[in-house]
Each structure stands twice: as structure tokens, then as C-alpha cells.
Write a structure and sequence with these properties.
- By secondary structure, the chain is of the alpha+beta class.
- The protein has a domain of 189 residues: MetI-like (MetI-like fold), CATH 1.10.3720.
- 66% of the residues lie in helices and 6% in strands.
- It is built from twelve helices and eight strands.
- The strands form three sheets. Strands 1-2-3-8 form a four-stranded antiparallel β-sheet.
- A hairpin with a 3-residue loop joins strand 1 and strand 2.
- The protein is globular.
- Its main location: membrane.
- InterPro entries: AA_ABC_transptr_permease_3TM (IPR010065), ArtM/GltK/GlnP/TcyL/YhdX-like (IPR043429), MetI-like (IPR000515), MetI-like_sf (IPR035906).
- Belongs to the binding-protein-dependent transport system permease family. HisMQ subfamily.
- It comes from Amylibacter marinus.
């Protein structure tokens, strides 16, 4: 027995096991005490309320939600709304941030001044104020009857931005999604046998062909392929409408996030060895070719860890949408707490949803970082 306790490996394992048991005991005791206190106050517990109807509508949702929908469906709609505005923000902010970074490292003084001015303005104004600013502008636009139009297809009014959209049914969306999944599987299976260019071309061509088949088959002869918004009465019918709440949140987060992402990318661009850039110039590369083939690929490796943190922050920043009435996951959970009183369960679902989204972003970015990092002997 003395030899067992004198073993350093045994002591280390015993200490780790004791610490884990202590943490588990603390969590279990906290849950039991909380459950007892909730029961003493006569409050219901459990997740059975998710099958109950909400009784209140949602003004914006990717999926169809009504006042008779269950809490589970409404919460799922809120999570989809958060992912929609979040991932669109990441895409647009990254593109705009890349442009800003290239402007800030440009040799042109005027372009560099414009990029620096943008960063200093949008980075130092709180994001919620920017969202309020764009929401005020959008809600003070003319009514639908006096809406600004562009080619009788795009309209801008205080009801939102109306634009054409493909006239796809639920079955069309299902088949199109299936074709995209099959294209991804094709890319994964052929990555060792075909070059990157032909693989992407074949996959994109297959998706395009499926999309055309969906639009041209199974429709009435007089049915339109594209749904164009038309003014009927006091509102627009057809097409797709981007509501002011969604647009203000997307624009505000994009402009705010681009200022930080631009600085992250600029730091990565400045970390590239000047000798490599001079080698590109010596080979006769243009500035565009140097940025596309040398500077940006080398800078991507340096800026990826910081970019991951900024992506996760922007996804969490979608919660400011509650200030302008955008029904994101946080707003839906807050309303559900007021209506159902299931505070602990809904807060657990709220934290679980954001943990799932942000952990997925971090996992994918870390996986990408593992693939592109320099491999050394250590």
C-alpha cells in the first residue's frame, strides 16, 4: 500500500479523479437545490412546455410560424434567424474587411486615408448605435406607394427592401439541397483523383443543371420562373422582402465587424516577408497578382486565429437585434420566458444554442488552421 501511495502516477490520477468527482458533486447538488427551491415556489419544471402552443406570432422567420406553433418550432425559427443574419454578416464583413485591409496597405495615399478613416469611425462607434442608426433611416423611407424603384423590380420603402426571387416550391428547395449535398460528397470523394479546378467546375455545373431542371419542369405553362414584387393596395406582393429589422441588423453588424476584420487582415498582410513580394515584382506580377497569389495566401495563415475569435464575437453580437425588434434566438427566448415562466429551461436552451453555433465555427476554423499551418519536426 505504501508503494502505491508513493507512486507519482497514482497520486496524479487520484488528484484528478478527486477533482472531477468534486465538480460533479457540486453540479448535482446545485441542480437538486435549485429544483427543490423551484418546487417550493410552485413553479413547473421540465421541457414539456415545448409541445405547447405559443399564442403569439413571429414577424420574420425563414420557416412558417404562426400563433398556433409550438414553443419548439418557434425556438427553432429563432435559432435559424440568428444563423441567417450571423453567417451573412461573417461573409459580407470578411469581403469588406479584405477590401479595407488592401486599402490600408496600399501605396496610394488617398486610398490609404479612406481606409483608415472608415476603420476609425466604425470601430469606435458602439454596434448598437450603428444598428439604431440604420434602422431609423430604413423606417423613415417613403411608404410603399411612394417607394423608390429600380427597374420596376427592386423597391425600397419603410416596409423593407423588395426584390425578385426564384419561384421555388418546397419540393424544389428539397431537391436543390440534395443536389448541393451530393456535390459536396463528390468533391470529398474525388479530391485525391482530380485537380481542384475540374472538381469545382463539375460540382458547380451539376448544381446549375439541377437548378435549371427544377425551374423548367413540373410547372404550369403560364407560371413565372422568377417572382417579381408588385404593389397591390398598400403592400408589395411577390418576390422577397428584407424587413427593416433584418436589414438594419445585417448592415450594422457588417460595417462594424468589417472594421475589426480589416485590421486583422491588415496585420496578416504586413506579416508577409517583403522579399517574397519583391520576388513577385521581379517575375513581372501585377499588384493584383501579387495580392492574390502571394500576399493573401501567406497572410491567411497568420491571421486565422484572430479571425476565429472575431467570427465568434460577431455571431454573439447578433443578440443586439432585440433592440430593433428582430426575432433572433435571444429575442424569442426572452419572449418565451415572459410567456411560459420556464426560465431555467429556456436559459439552458439559449446557452446551448449559442455554444453549438460558436463551437461549430471554432471547430471548423481550427480544422482549417490545422490543415494550413506549417508542419515541422516538433
Amino acid at each position: 500500500m505504501s508503494q502505491l501511495f508513493s507512486s507519482q502516477k497514482f497520486r496524479r490520477t487520484a488528484l484528478q479523479g478527486g477533482f472531477i468527482l468534486g465538480v460533479v458533486a457540486l453540479i448535482v447538488s446545485t441542480v437538486l437545490v435549485g429544483k427543490s427551491n423551484i418546487a417550493d415556489q410552485g413553479m413547473a419544471t421540465g421541457f414539456g412546455f415545448l409541445e405547447q402552443t405559443t399564442g403569439w406570432p413571429v414577424n420574420f422567420s425563414i420557416i412558417e410560424v404562426t400563433g398556433r406553433s409550438t414553443y419548439a418550432l418557434v425556438l427553432w425559427a429563432g435559432l435559424l434567424n440568428t444563423m441567417l443574419v450571423g453567417f451573412l454578416t461573417l461573409i459580407f464583413a470578411t469581403i469588406l474587411g479584405l477590401v479595407l485591409a488592401l486599402m490600408r496597405v496600399s501605396s496610394n495615399t488617398l486610398i490609404k486615408l479612406v481606409g483608415a478613416s472608415y476603420v476609425e469611425v466604425f470601430r469606435n462607434v458602439p454596434v448598437i448605435l450603428q444598428v439604431f442608426f440604420w434602422y431609423a433611416i430604413l423606417t423613415h423611407l417613403p411608404s410603399p406607394k411612394q417607394a423608390y424603384s429600380l427597374g420596376e423590380s427592386f423597391y425600397l420603402s419603410n416596409r423593407g427592401i423588395m426584390m425578385p426571387a426564384p419561384a421555388l416550391s418546397g419540393g424544389d428547395v428539397l431537391w436543390l439541397t440534395a443536389s448541393v449535398i451530393l456535390a459536396v460528397i463528390f468533391l470529398l470523394l474525388t479530391r485525391k483523383h482530380l485537380q481542384s479546378g475540374p472538381r469545382w467546375a463539375i460540382a458547380a455545373g451539376a448544381i446549375f443543371i439541377v437548378f435549371c431542371i427544377l425551374l423548367l419542369t413540373g410547372r404550369e405553362p403560364d407560371s413565372a420562373l422568377i417572382s417579381v414584387p408588385q404593389l397591390k393596395g398598400l403592400r408589395f406582393v411577390g418576390g422577397i422582402t428584407l424587413k427593416p429589422e433584418f436589414t438594419a441588423l445585417l448592415v450594422g453588424l457588417t460595417l462594424f465587424g468589417a472594421s475589426y476584420i480589416g485590421e486583422i487582415i491588415r496585420g496578416g498582410l504586413l506579416s508577409v516577408d517583403r522579399g517574397k513580394l519583391e520576388a513577385g515584382r521581379a517575375l513581372g506580377f501585377s499588384t493584383l497578382q501579387i495580392n492574390r497569389l502571394i500576399r493573401i495566401p501567406l497572410a491567411f495563415r497568420a491571421m486565422l486565429p484572430s479571425l476565429t475569435n472575431q467570427y465568434i464575437w460577431l455571431m454573439k453580437g447578433t443578440t443586439v437585434g432585440i433592440a430593433v425588434g428582430y426575432p433572433d434566438y435571444f429575442a424569442i427566448v426572452s419572449t418565451s420566458i415572459n410567456q411560459s415562466g420556464q426560465t431555467m429551461e429556456l436559459l439552458a436552451l439559449l446557452m446551448g444554442g449559442f455554444i453549438l453555433i460558436n463551437y461549430s465555427i471554432g471547430f471548423l476554423m481550427n480544422l482549417l488552421n490545422e490543415r494550413i499551418k506549417l508542419k515541422g519536426r516538433n
